[in-house]
Structure formats: structure tokens, C-alpha cells
Amino acid sequence: MGRPGLWGGSMETPKNDTKVVIGGKVYTLSGYESEEYIQKIASYLNGKLEEMQREEGYRHISQELRSLLLEINIADDCFKMKRQMEALREEMDAKAKDLYDLKHELVTTQLKLETTEKALRRAQSENEEKAKKIVRLEAGQK
């Protein structure tokens, strides 16, 4: 379950009243987020408004259509961010799987190395025993 939004909170979280300027007008927003967060939202909205006002013909349409276009642009940003988050999540999952595979390969290689080292020590021990036997045999022939 997600955390509450700007205006939905819990009994433990105090409500903040924050004055912001949006589109040249001063508003007092009350919410459960920090003042800094509320100011960031106002700044984002001002940026979207400025972006829209740079478009040819924006000033010639009704306020209702302006509001609708702003809402559509914000929804577009939201959907793009969700798509980007999903892509990052998929990339992270793929990297986690690659990491798991590499760890598994490392463990398998370590086990093979340990087995090979044991076989090498066994072979060295056998060689030493055979070398001692050869020395004893040669010493017995003299």
C-alpha cells in the first residue's frame, strides 16, 4: 500500500500550511508533506505552465482548455515516469538475476577449485610416497 498523498495523512503526521505561488497567484496549500515538498510541487506546476505558455496559440484558447491541456501534460509526465520506473525495475531485476547467476557460478568454481586442490595434494602426497619408495629401493640395491 502506498503512502498517503499530499492531502491525505494520518493522525501522527501534522498538517502543514504552506504559501506557494502558482501561475503568479498566491495560494495556501495545506497538506501532510513537508513545506519543501509542497514548494517543489508548486515549482513543477509553474514550470509546466511556463512550458505551455511558450506554445503558439496557448493564450488564444479558453481557460478551461488551458487547464485541460495542463492536466494532460502532467498525466503524460506521470505515465512517462511510470514507464521509466518499470524499465528501471526490469533492468534492476535482470541485473539481480545476473548477479545471482554470477554468485552461483563463483560458488561452483570455488567448489571445483577445492576439489582440484584436494586432488593435487593427494597426488603430491602419493608422489612423495613413491619417491621415498624409489629411494628405499635404490638404497637397497647398493
Give an overview in words:
- 69% of the residues lie in helices and 10% in strands.
- By secondary structure, it is mainly alpha-helical.
- A two-stranded antiparallel ribbon has the order 1-2.
- It is built from two helices and two strands; from the N terminus they run E-E-H-H.
- Strand 1 (16-22) and strand 2 (25-31) form a beta hairpin.
Secondary structure blueprint with pairings:
Layout: E1 16-22, E2 25-31, H1 35-53, H2 63-141
Antiparallel strand pairs: 1-2
Task: Please tag this protein with its features.
single chain; 142 residues; mainly alpha; two-stranded antiparallel sheet; 2 strands
Structure at a glance:
The chain has 142 residues and is mainly alpha-helical. The chain has helices at residues 35-53, 63-141; strands spanning 16-22, 25-31. A hairpin with a 2-residue loop joins strand 1 (16-22) and strand 2 (25-31).
Q: Cα-atom Rg, whole angstroms?
A: 36 Å
**H/E series, N to C?**
EEHH
- Mean of the pLDDT scores? 91
Biggest sheet details: 2 strands, antiparallel
How many helices?
2
Strand content: 5-15%
Secondary-structure content class: mainly alpha
Helix content, binned percent: 55-70%
Spatially, the strands of the biggest sheet line up as 1-2
Shape: rod-shaped
